[in-house]
Design goal:
Two copies of one chain form a homodimer. In chain A, 46% of the residues lie in helices and 18% in strands. Chain A has 346 residues and is α/β, with parallel strands linked by helices. Chain A folds into three domains: 44 residues, lambda repressor-like DNA-binding domains (434 Repressor (Amino-terminal Domain)); 131 residues, Response regulator (Rossmann fold, 3-Layer(aba) Sandwich); 133 residues, Response regulator (Rossmann fold). Chains A, B: InterPro entries: HTH_LacI, Lambda_DNA-bd_dom_sf, Peripla_BP_I, SBP_2_dom. Chains A, B: GO terms for molecular function: DNA-binding transcription factor activity; transcription cis-regulatory region binding.
DNA sequence: AGGTTTTTGATGTACGTTAATCAAAATTCA
DNA sequence: TGAATTTTGATTAACGTACATCAAAAACCT
């Protein structure tokens, strides 16, 4: 009825506690036949080691390090804030979190930071690393070295494909772009017109993937709407404001806008200033104070959002599971993109 | 550096381990002055009891009972399936789950089931109960009695307001209705026309709340669209098919459809059969095999969804926290309504 | 067969907490 | 002041696992 323990396994397998322990923890000095007997007993009883008791016993502390891009934009600042918040809570779960920041978009600096972790004093080497990856060969190399040293690596928010990272935690940006198109296309149904794309995202990879998904669906399903070449706002509100204003004045047939990066404050100001009629439908990314107000005021129609708190929690859960060599579901880590209208703001 | 333990607290407070234990577990026989000294030491050290060690020691098993409406519709069947799945996993977390089912919409039967739990043999009395509530006075009374017996009660999916339940876990149905209106209104922008509402929900309360939210937003923001009186489909696909077909034939100006309950298969068939042009925009609830296909085929435009797995997990987490008298955030339990288009299907 | 090596068993301690027992000290009351 | 009572301390054994040590048994060599 109750969960079986190592004692039960020992009894059923007809071996001593020590032998069960040796099998369980992969120590050597056990004949293959005996090992198999123990394994069979475990299967028969449905034994699962009690991780809490195990961690208590081995006084395990999960040492986790986060390497984040330093204050490049408000999304990253939020992320850092969230990690700090989780760090406090995580102490409860035997998890000690350290954080370092590196210049954004600088593959070399990021790689150097990761190497530093591996080469630290033994007691300071983390069991796992969470990194917002910059897509560069040096980084791939550094990740591979960490894994070689037995350190689990999770990429957060922005993935590093074709690398040795253990897992990716974040949203599917292609799907996010497709979703934006699905919404905007339906919002602009039955109208001919142009769609402005405001780019200049926080991370090159996200930018590209979102735009890819967006144009896929626009072409396939909403051919009457013509996406324009992206307006590069460089994530800076002033820049976005200036360039979007120009575009709106030059092209009165802009019927929809997809903003896939930062600088939403500028977009909002441009829309208020030029106020074209009928107002274009707007889909943007990331729920912030700015975009929340834009939704409430009816300037934005929808905001696609990734819940960073959820992402950080998820990364920690998965990391602990990886460190314990506990099975972790494949789908875990694929964070869903949330859709907010003014009507379902949290 | 490391987490402080009871030993550290004892040392700092200058008392014995026994006294710390007595304070920690609310046993009596401690003078108020001493108790305060111990509390001060805990605060000073930032002591937090190690729940895992504590549970190990007191061999705690969380006994949780789920009372669900029996096979009333596919949503409830999914829910039951999900609970059974979680029951297997929950064993890992020292949680033993039992399940009972009662006839749907029958407040008396539900109340009787809840009373049975309280009056069971002491070792069978659960520490917490999760119930899909039917809104009735007897149920409120039974919940209140459970709480009086020290049993935590969580309402799942459908709440029991003005009752003694400890928490509610589920979506905000008013907000879901508002969101549906926000989407459908934008999908039907610039068109005059009627909006058909297909009702007959699984639970009266959800039905009412969703419709309320929907009409709120429709009136306020999309006055050019006129919601029709609801088509009562009684959650049965055949009934829905018949009545929606009739409505579509009778009123060619139906430009949007909001289906807030079950029977989506019937809705889909009606739309394919009558195939009005231009096709009406459709927003429905709950992602199932049926509605997924309808999205993929472009018959439905959006589906609002509650993630039952998430809800069940959330209920268990909160319940354990309540049983441990651990603080639990206020916002926890408010499950977000997810929005799916064909472009972001999981 | 004897010796060597490998495999297994027995035992104890630890992790941080709960919980019980019994003795010692402090406090209250007559 | 002495007895009765309350409060505190000291000690011990769990919970399920990890890990170390030493001895015993079994298997492997020549």
């Amino acid at each position: 009825m109750l969960r079986p323990t190592v004692h039960d396994v020992a009894r059923v397998a007809n071996v001593s506690l020590s032998t069960v322990d040796r099998v369980l923890n992969g120590r050597d000095g056990v004949r293959a036949a005996t090992r198999e007997r123990v394994r069979a007993a475990m299967r028969e009883l449905g034994y699962e080691r009690d991780i809490m008791a195990a961690n208590l016993s081995r006084k395990r502390v999960y040492k986790v390090h986060f390497t984040l891009p330093e204050g490049s934009n408000s999304f990253m600042r939020n992320l850092a804030e969230e990690v700090r918040a989780q760090a406090r809570e995580a102490a409860r779960d035997r998890t000690r979190i350290s954080i370092s920041t590196v210049p954004p978009f600088d593959g070399r600096a990021l790689a150097a930071d990761l190497r530093r972790l591996r080469d630290a004093a033994p007691e300071a080497v983390p069991d796992g690393v969470v990194v917002v990856a910059t897509d560069a060969a040096e980084v791939r190399q550094a990740v591979s070295e960490l894994r070689g040293a037995g350190i689990e690596v999770i990429t957060l928010v922005s993935d590093l494909p074709a690398s040795a990272r253990s897992r990716f935690v974040g949203i599917d940006n292609v799907s996010a772009g497709r979703t934006a198109a699905g919404l905007l296309g339906r919002f602009c149904r039955g109208q001919k017109g142009r769609i402005a794309i405001v780019a200049g995202s926080m991370l090159l990879r996200d930018h590209v993937e979102r735009r890819l998904g967006f144009e896929q669906v626009m072409h396939a399903e909403f051919a009457h709407l013509a996406p324009m070449p992206p307006i590069e706002g460089r994530d800076a509100a002033d820049e976005v404001e200036r360039r979007v204003s120009e575009a709106l004045e030059a092209r009165p047939d802009i019927t929809g806008i997809y903003s896939l990066g930062g600088g939403n404050g500028g977009l909002q100001r441009a829309l208020l200033r030029v106020s074209p009629t009928p107002r274009p439908m707007v889909v943007a990314h990331e729920l912030t104070e700015q975009s929340r107000h834009a939704l409430q005021d009816g300037v934005f129609d929808a905001v696609l959002h990734q819940d960073i708190g959820h992402e950080v929690r998820s990364a920690l859960d998965i990391l602990r599971a990886l460190i314990d060599a506990t099975p972790v579901e494949a789908g875990r880590g694929l964070i869903r993109t949330e859709i907010f209208l003014r009507d379902n703001l949290p």
